[in-house]
Design a protein that fits this description.
This protein is an alpha+beta fold and 86 residues long. The chain has 5 helices and 4 strands, in the order H-E-E-H-H-H-H-E-E. The protein has a single domain, classed as Arc Repressor Mutant, subunit A (Orthogonal Bundle), CATH 1.10.10.
C-alpha cells in the first residue's frame, strides 16, 4: 500500500524517486518543488486538526508543520527506502 501511494505521488509530480543499485536495495524519495508547494496547505490542515479537541491526543506525537515533517524525514533510512527533503 505504501509503495502504491509513493508511486502515485511520483506520477503526480509530488515526490521524486532515486534508486541506488546496491545491496541491500536502497530507494530515496524526496519532495519535488511541486511537493514543497503543498506545504502551506498541509500546514493549514495540521493546524486545523490540532485545534480539534477530539483528536488532540493523536496529534501530540506528530509534527506540527509540513516543514518540520520534511526536516524529520531527511535522515530516516531503511534497507528499502530513505525519505529525504531536497
Amino acid at each position: 500500500m505504501l509503495i502504491q501511494q509513493l508511486r502515485q505521488m511520483e506520477s503526480d509530480g509530488i515526490v521524486r524517486r532515486i534508486v541506488h543499485h546496491q545491496v541491500p536495495p536502497k530507494v530515496e524519495y524526496g519532495l519535488t518543488d511541486g511537493g514543497q508547494a503543498l506545504c502551506p496547505a498541509l500546514d493549514a490542515i495540521l493546524k486545523w486538526a490540532a485545534s480539534r479537541d477530539d483528536v488532540a491526543d493523536a496529534n501530540d506525537c506528530g509534527p506540527t508543520s509540513c516543514a518540520s515533517a520534511t526536516r524529520v524525514n531527511q535522515k530516516i533510512s531503511s534497507p528499502i527506502m530513505v525519505l529525504a527533503a531536497p
